[in-house]
Amino acid sequence: MLSDDKISHLSHILLRGLIEKKLVILKGDEPSARKAIKKAISTEVKLGEHLDVSVRKKLQSYSRKIVEGSPEWDILYRKFYQEEEMKRGRAEGQL
To answer: DSSP labels for 25-87?
Structure first.
């Protein structure tokens, strides 16, 4: 989990980089832009956490124990994570 301070720091770095590379032209002020960036980062982090919980529950529901960190666990985790992303319209299906 990213702390609020880390998210704030990332938003400053991201906005500065976007402006320096002329990838964005601000129509408003920088604090408003940073606030929007922070909100987007926070939303993505929270969604990622929810996806992680869903995937772990699915893996734990198997009748046979799959050891976390094993190659099988890693493959199934990535597969189920992508499936959960697609269910939520978050990713283009690349299974």
So the answer is: --SS-HHHHHHHHHHHHHHHHHHHHHHHHHHHHHHHTSSS---TTSHHHHHHHHHHHHHHHHH
